[in-house]
Amino acid sequence: MNNLLEINDLRVNFMTESGVARAVDGINITIAPGRTLGVVGESGCGKSVTSRAILGLVDSPGWIESGEIMFNSRKGVVDLAQLPRNGRQINAIRGSEITMIFQEPMTALNPVLTIGDQITEPLLLHEKISRKEAKERAIASLAAVGISAPRQRFDEYAHNLSGGMRQRAMIAMALVCNPSLLIADEPTTALDVTIQAQVLDLMNELRQQFAGAIMFITHDLGVVATMADDVIVMYRGKIVESASVRDLYRNPLHPYTQGLMRSVPSIVNRGETRLQTIEGSVPRPTEFIRGCAFASRCANVMPVCRESVPALAPVSGPHKAACFLHHSISEERADAA
User: Fold this and answer.
1) Domain ranges of the chain
2) Upstream peptide bond of 255 is cis (omega within 30 degrees of 0)
């Protein structure tokens, strides 16, 4: 297996009072070493659930119904979907080979432990080093993410730091063990605009130095433009479009992707005074829909869209879209081949 991560037909469900919620509904993802994959979509589209499935953090009443999460770990290829949630093997990978930056650092950081204690914990757990060496590596990691006076910050608590500093400390913790895969789940959502820009600049700098792969989850296509090599767009638990970042921005194919593009002023709304929006909202994951889940919000909806679910199919090279508007194109090319 040459890729770092391969997800095959992953399905994650949650039991609710309204029935079974299909949070992730048969997705396929590939991440190559050294690449950054942007995962885009509105809230409720399955982005964060996918990341938690990778880490073995799908909480009850949720479960992985089927599929594979093949990870090329340092000790060999392993299917993360089959590992016990709190077993020795997943614990050895989680926090060491796969790490995560969460949305809200104030809730992710432990308020009763110092920043230093929290950064040295994964080092002491996963690597056979002394506390002195772990402390020096933690301080170096704090310095690497631009935290001033890192020795002083090492002994402080989360409430002593600003929001931007807490997020930098989270990044330092995630990178201290040199992971193979870093998952960033909306890492700037809880920050104000100025601090968002600083954290994104920092992550872009680190991305150039970081040897591993990154899975960057966001609702903002403008952020993906500066961060990712490849992009997948998720809608109601499915992938509706996948492409290189260059191809996606030059030629978005799915109506949902096009709608997201129109809502970002720096991409297509320069000079306009009013942003366009996508009418409606993402259907509930417990709701039965016969055809395309986006049909009720799509300006290009056709009768077939309400009767059948479009498959994610190649349209131009590796660029794929799950939309009947493009299926005839891909089918003609396949017939010609």
Assistant:
1) 5-97+179-291, 109-177
2) no
pLDDT surpasses 50 at 335: no
Q: What is the CATH number of domain 5-97+179-291?
A: 3.40.50.300
0.85 cut: is pTM over it?
A: yes
- Band (pLDDT 50/70/90 cuts) for residue 336 is very low
Q: 72 has which bridge partners?
A: 77
The answer to whether residue 67 scores a pLDDT higher than 60 is yes
* Residue of 66, 72, 62, 64 whose CA lies nearest to 30: 72
Q: What is the mean pLDDT of residues 34-62?
A: 95
Burial class for 92, CB neighbours closer than 10 Å (0-12, 13-18, 19+): middle
Closest CA to 23 of 237, 307, 291: 237
Burial level of 31, CB count in 10 A (0-12/13-18/19+)?
A: buried
Write the pLDDT tens digit of every residue in 4-32: 999 999 999 999 999 999 999 999 999 99
Nearest-5° angle of CA 168, CA 174, CA 179? Answer: 140
CA distance 22 to 12: 6
Return the residue matching tokens 């509930």: 284
Q: Does position 121 have pLDDT exceeding 70, yes or no?
A: yes
